[in-house]
Design brief:
Uracil-DNA Glycosylase, subunit E, 13 helices, globular, binds uracil
């Protein structure tokens, strides 16, 4: 394996930080940083970090400079093209550096139904298209079972870059991308929203229960850019169903509920 191939393999495995030849004492560095913060600010910094890492904090309340920058950019976008450009040029999310492509959306932007998944995986990162790998194939089958295909639905994710090693997006990354996701939904202005998996559900509905507890009923999704709430359904994430095929029975029930609603 040559050096470039080795580095690429390490990046794909989630190693996104280089270390130097000589050991670095990070404890000493941390000590210098924390002792330079006045005691009362130190407590505030610890509280803030704890809040960011707490899944109970609604993402739009997580105080982040990157999220504020994304909000300012999102506020200015009046079309999907402008939003896509803003996301592609945004440098506030560190995982963009380890990703190959920005994965913005697929499907029909005029569709009345929009689906939001979690994050791009390795195939999506290569092709720049959401849900084009193994879980995308299952998603397509699920949609086809209720007579939907990508000409009738618009698809995106809660974040636009592949997290290294396909790990779950962090609260920090979700909060950073949230203003773009909110504006994305408002510009598509769907009549019906489908959230696929716990990450999209927790990020957008600000609920921290699991999909298995929340599924089976409709919700009203709203954000600052929408004129009125959007009817919203939840489905298991296809990659979860690939790992837990026994839950396909419940997934089928949820899809039928969606089919009935669309037909009504
Ligand atoms: N999983 C997701 O949530 N989104 C994708 O685009 C691919 C896999």
């Amino acid at each position: 394996m040559n050096n470039k191939a080795l580095l690429e393999w390490q990046l794909a495995a989630g190693i996104d930080e280089a270390t130097a030849e000589a050991p670095i004492n990070y404890f000493a560095i941390k000590q210098q940083v924390t002792t330079s913060i006045p005691a009362n600010h130190k407590t505030a910094a610890i509280v803030q970090e704890a809040k960011i890492n707490s899944s109970h904090t609604p993402l739009h309340l997580v105080p982040l400079a990157a999220s504020n920058a994304a909000r300012e950019l999102a506020n200015k976008c009046d079309t999907l093209e402008e939003l896509e450009d803003a996301v592609k040029n945004f440098e506030g999310c560190a995982i963009k550096k380890t990703a190959t492509k920005t994965v913005f959306a697929d499907g029909n932007p005029q569709a009345k139904i929009m689906l939001i998944g979690e994050a791009p995986g390795s195939q999506e990162d290569i092709q720049g298209i959401p849900f084009c790998g193994a879980s995308g194939q299952l998603l397509d089958k699920m949609l086809l079972s209720i007579e939907l295909d990508r000409s009738k639905i618009y698809i995106s994710n809660t974040i636009f870059w592949r997290p290294p090693g396909n790990r779950q997006p962090s609260t920090h990354e979700l909060a950073t991308c949230l203003p773009f996701v909110e504006k994305h939904i408002a510009l598509v202005n769907p009549k019906f929203l489908i959230l696929s998996g716990g990450t999209a559900t927790n990020a957008l509905l600000q609920k921290d229960q699991s999909i298995s507890r929340l599924r089976g009923k409709f919700y009203e999704y709203n954000n600052i850019y929408l004129n009125s709430p959007v009817k919203t359904a939840l489905i298991y994430h296809p990659s979860y169903l690939l790992r837990q095929p026994l839950n396909k029975k419940q997934a089928w029930q949820d899809l039928l509920l969606i089919k009935q609603f669309i037909a009504s």
